[in-house]
Fold each of these.
Amino acid sequence: MKVAVVGATGMVGEVMLKVLKERNFPISELLLVASERSVGKQISYNGQSISVIGLADAVTARPDLAIFSAGGDTSLIWAPKFAAAGTTVIDNSSAWRMDPEKKLVVPEINANKLTKEDKIIANPNCSTIQLVMVLAPLHAKYKMKRVVVSTYQSVSGTGVKAVKQLENEMAGIQGEMAYPYPINRNALPHCDTFMENGYTKEEMKLAREPQKILDDRTFSISATAVRIPTAGGHSESVNVEFKSDFELNEVRRILKNTPGVIVQDNPDTNTYPMPVYAHDKDDVFVGRIRRDETQRKTLNMWIVADNLRKGAATNAIQIAEYLVDNELL
């Protein structure tokens, strides 16, 4: 299979290459694609040195599959060009997520809706993926009414520039700023740009994307997204009001039986999810599972995942695996 990775020189692109190799994805030819300034750069993959090519050359090469992580503007222009050439595109940006004609997919939840006609497939927001992985099985059982989520997001979600800002500040070096304020020893309630309603784009992604993935708009989500000085891994404090009541033991049993979810929940041994545990793993971790004592039928949880893996690269490649396994390419 001829596969193109678009945005191969970025943080997510690098992780995509790592995950493709780890999962032994069937590749006969690998095209590494990036912006013009990176064309000609050599990248090592599976013991082979591959030259980076530009987008136009990649479209001409007609890959079977193109996995995008190159930003929304690039995806809006180039994903349709790849699709017109017969390539199936899996896009990691926000460009196509809320397009009613495009599927928004977390494989464990809704990959079965994919068909051969889906030439542009949207990969959800990193914070959304880990949230719905935990909410989906509980929603199926108890039916969600309202969700309140606060995120604690790694600087790696912003990109290389933000990681460098944190490293510089920790070392006492004055450097380029990805954020309007210092991030070291700080917390910024500001992920993505602010909208007219006072929420950020990241917060509205968390509000809207789960409804589309679960194909259900009977529940609502209110989000506050915060950037914190961790190098990798997003965390979420989640409060869920259900229509039906629940037993905590049953909640834990449901989550333990959910593929891709690991329960870490034992206060007696200080066992709970943390970014340091989730690093370089593909699972979503959940703990601090407890009843909200201020309101009936309401649950509190703490959810953590590696935002560059399950939150981005791994989810996209799992979509690709589903397409291959079900002969949809």
Note: Residues 126-142 form the longest helix (17 residues).
Amino acid sequence: MQIEHTTLKDHFPMIRDRSAIIADINKSTRLLTDFNNWSKIRQELFLGICTGARGVKMLYDSPFKELLNPEHTPERLSSLLSELLSRKVTVKAVLPNDSERLGDEMSLVITDIVVELEDGTIANIEVQKIGYAFPGERVSCYSADLLLRQYKRVRDERKEAFSYKDLAPVYTIVFIEKSPQIFHKYPDSFLHYFSESSNTGISLNLLQNFIFVPVDIFLNKLHNEGINSKLDAWLTFLGCDEPKWIIELISRYPEFKPLYSHLYDLCRNIEGVMDMFSKELQIMDRNTVKYMIDELQEQLDTANEQLDTANEQLETANTKVITLTDEISRLNKLLDENGIKH
């Protein structure tokens, strides 16, 4: 496909020049102080986003919730979920998320949205900048929590008429910008679906389902193969900040252009977008610390396991030495009793 324009500003004329943005920052003592407190790299990242020198990865909390807000524009999230679930779905309602994990200030979860679809299915959409250690164990716990909350809500609504048949499937969908090493063992797969199954083939309506989307692995595929489907388009929108691919995306799928226009309209409010950017930086710093702690804990656990194994081996060796020593003593005693020199 021949693309006429080569810069984001050609497609989004509301994008402002660098000099105009810096002039706005200099007008406010608070904004100038905040800007100067950022590292040079972060200053350039901010200016690059606002001037269209680079795009925006939507896997930030504020842009994700602003552009995919299921209360204001449910059709956008409906479209994304339809591609992931491989069937047409419609977001009917946003459900409160009162999971205990939201009180964890060191949580690696950036965005956490729970919605109900038109058929009653519950979908929990998570965004992680850095993937958790033990992702399977963790999401199992939160899926169980979500299912239990659905059970309590439906039981309270239907009272004596309640039946377990009233419960709908629960999907936990996790987008990971920097995925754990386990996902990189499958470099050709950027969608991982999990659901319960039996060893005999018997079919039971088990309710918990999981979808993991390692976005970094998708980006490798994008660079090699391009955008070939609507799902590719959505993942490009969410995870890619390269102007070349954004222009390719809106050329192939024009329905994404209004989303970027919305974003660049927001970027004209320098004070608002700087506050948003500062919040995201705090989350990123906090997540990096949490990730490092988890990584060190995992290394410590491994070292302790290795030490336990070494101690067990040493104890086994000591037992053998004692047994051999006892046997030598017994034989020497036997030789002495029989007057045999040794």
Note: The radius of gyration is 28 Å.
